[in-house]
Write a structure and sequence with these properties.
The protein has 119 residues and is mainly α. The protein contains three helices and two strands.
Length: 119
């Protein structure tokens, strides 16, 4: 059967292997972006005698934090909208590209998604 039932008796189509791969990549990218956001949130700027500098750095971090996971989500959706569901070669290519980007994002020196870090 191509349909399965969920606990609330809704009928949903089974996902293909390619769909599962796309969703798994999407979840991994979002998890990593949120992890980077949390890391940026706990960032403490170097001590400075000027309190205005400290406040400015904290506000800048907060602005980039709110956009990091959102940027990853928006980019993923933008890429998804640009591809037809039946274009398997392009989807497979984008999955490979996304996995490479995820590996880069997991590197310790990368602090933000879609932005330039000043740290």
């Amino acid at each position: 059967h191509q349909f399965t039932t969920h606990e609330n008796n809704m009928i949903a189509r089974r996902l293909s292997g390619l769909q599962k791969d796309v969703l798994a990549l999407y979840r991994c990218i979002l998890r990593e972006a949120v992890r980077k956001d949390r890391k940026a949130l706990t960032f403490t700027p170097p001590s400075s005698s000027d309190s205005n500098v400290k406040t400015h750095v904290r506000i800048g971090n907060l602005l980039s934090i709110s956009s990091s996971a959102a940027y990853a989500r928006d980019q993923f959706r933008k890429e998804a909208l640009a591809v037809r569901r039946s274009d398997f070669k392009t989807i497979e290519y984008k999955i490979r590209k996304g996995k490479k980007q995820l590996q880069l994002l997991r590197m310790p020196g990368v602090n933000l998604v879609g932005g330039v870090s000043n740290t």
